[in-house]
UniProtKB/TrEMBL annotation:
It comes from the Bacteria. The active site is at D305 (proton acceptor). Belongs to the EPSP synthase family. Its main location: cytoplasm. This is 3-phosphoshikimate 1-carboxyvinyltransferase. Residues 3-415 form the Enolpyruvate transferase domain. Phosphoenolpyruvate binds at K11, G84, R112, Q159, R336, R383. It is found in: Cytoplasm. The lineage of its organism: Bacteria, Pseudomonadati, Pseudomonadota, Betaproteobacteria, Burkholderiales. Pathway: Metabolic intermediate biosynthesis; chorismate biosynthesis; chorismate from D-erythrose 4-phosphate and phosphoenolpyruvate: step 6/7. Its EC number is 2.5.1.19. 3-phosphoshikimate binds at K11, S12, R16, S157, Q159, D305, K332. Keywords: Amino-acid biosynthesis, Aromatic amino acid biosynthesis, Cytoplasm, Transferase. Catalyzes the transfer of the enolpyruvyl moiety of phosphoenolpyruvate (PEP) to the 5-hydroxyl of shikimate-3-phosphate (S3P) to produce enolpyruvyl shikimate-3-phosphate and inorganic phosphate.
Length: 432
């Protein structure tokens, strides 16, 4: 594996750029927008509410903002597809509208918990109806205004924090959210970029309702969660030397780098810059002899989407890796603890799932995964599919991954980019 690559734009920031651009006064120009299914679901939702959005054209999008109160009632349910971020953040914004909305999702999203957003929105005086077990669909009865609340998040979730803050834009008063652990702060940073006064003091974020958003320019960095697949791939591959350009390295998001460094990865950062309030850098990764570690719990929320591929790193490391405090992995697009443990076991790895994590006995960098010919089931989860594509680098024989088209959720062009870097994803034999 060698070469330079730029992975597509950050998914979290792309979602937020459409939402805030739509609510702003004026025209917001976005570059580096992720043309993946999740971010496109958010784009379509705002189009369905009357926002004129040009693009995407090679990552360029122009959003003609309608102002905080300019959205129109959609004529059909808003389809959030596979995207938890779309559903939970849009739920917050819908609370302040003067119309009712129904939010629906695909099979996977329809199984994900929504009580976590229904609870705070109910405290804000909003009537939300949901399906069985507080799952989607969500029916939100917008009243045009919400009550400001002081909310302590019961779990570390940037989606719930963002839902409450975005609803708080429509409150007559100050909304505060306190989080139990640091989670990604893209909402807070982007709101500031749109001229909104958002204060962060320790673990509490504070926002006065009724502030207007002023259109701005947004340059979306490359997605560290997508880059993570190649960081692990290069680490476990022989003679690898790759550089990933312009990767978003917001400290509330880039825990994967700290974890890989602690495992002995050979990672160098250069060309540090700040774009649109978000830190970026180029990330050079070379082959390394990884070792198993106990993953510090404070890094869990800031690397939450990277665990599927970090489990692959652990499977190829020397010694034991222990993950705890990561029960949130069980309510993502799939149960990422169960699905990864099953897949790794099928590759001959001793991977023991626990309620809130996993214990993996690494095979070391000399012996490969003994892939025994069973088909890996990605269970409709893009990150599972890409993680096993990376695992295939060290597998004996060809690894077949079912449902791999889901990679378009977050990483369109994954296979092409992987090929450019020297991985043969469509016909993997032995080591790349
Ligand atoms: O706010 C966001 O953009 C996201 C937050 C995280 O979810 P949780 O808030 O549920 O942890 C993450 O898993 C998801 O991919 C994107
Ligand atoms: C959990 C994820 O996304 P979402 O919650 O937006 O579906 C993810 O992309 O890994």
């Amino acid at each position: 594996m060698s070469g330079l690559a730029r992975v597509p734009g950050d998914k979290s920031i792309s979602h937020r750029s459409i939402m805030m651009g739509s609510l702003a006064d004026g025209v917001t120009d976005i570059e580096g927008f992720l043309e993946g299914e999740d971010a496109l679901a958010t784009m379509n939702a705002f189009r369905a509410m009357g926002v004129y959005i040009e693009g995407p054209d090679q990552g360029r999008v122009r959003v003609h903002g309608v102002g905080l109160h300019g959205l129109k009632a959609p004529t059909a349910p808003l389809d959030c597809g596979n995207s938890g971020t779309s559903m939970r953040l849009i739920a917050g914004l819908m609370s302040g509208q003067r119309f009712d909305v129904t939010l629906i999702g695909d099979e996977s999203l329809s199984k994900r918990p929504m009580k976590r957003v229904i609870d705070p929105l109910t405290l804000m005086g909003v009537r939300v109806e949901a399906g069985e077990g507080s799952r989607p669909p969500l029916h939100i009865h917008g009243k045009g205004a919400v009550k400001a609340i002081d909310y302590s998040l019961p779990m570390a979730s940037a989606q719930v924090k963002s839902c409450v803050l975005l609803a708080g834009l429509y409150a007559d008063g100050v909304t505060t959210v306190t989080e139990p652990a640091v989670t990604r702060d893209h909402t807070e940073r982007m709101l500031r970029g749109f001229g909104v006064d958002v204060k962060t003091e320790g673990s509490t974020v504070r926002l006065q309702g009724g502030q207007t958003l002023k259109a701005c320019k947004i340059d979306v960095p490359s997605d560290v969660s997508s880059a993570a697949f190649f960081m692990v791939a290069a680490s476990i591959c022989e003679n690898a030397d790759i550089t990933l350009k312009h990767v978003g390295l917001n400290p509330t998001r880039a825990g994967v780098i700290d974890i890989l460094l602690a495992m002995g990865a050979n990672i160098e950062l250069s060309n540090h810059a700040t774009i649109g309030g978000e830190p970026v850098a180029d990330v050079r990764v070379r082959s390394a002899k990884l070792k198993g570690i106990r993953i510090p719990e404070h890094l869990v929320p800031i690397a939450i989407d990277e665990f599927p591929v970090l489990f692959v790193a652990a499977a190829n490391a020397v010694g034991e890796t222990v993950l705890t405090g990561a029960e949130e992995l069980r309510v993502k697009e799939s149960d990422r603890i169960a699905v990864m443990a099953n897949g790794l076991q099928a590759c001959g790895v001793n991977a023991q799932p626990t309620e809130d994590g996993m214990i993996i006995q690494g095979l070391g960098y000399k012996s490969g995964l003994r892939y025994q010919g069973t088909v890996i089931e990605s269970q409709g989860d893009h990150r599972i599919a890409m993680s096993f594509a990376v695992a295939a680098i060290r597998a004996e024989g060809t690894m077949r991954i079912r449902g791999a088209q889901t990679v378009d959720t977050s990483f369109p062009g994954f296979v092409t980019l992987a090929s450019q870097l020297g991985l043969n994803i469509s016909a993997v034999k032995g080591r790349a």
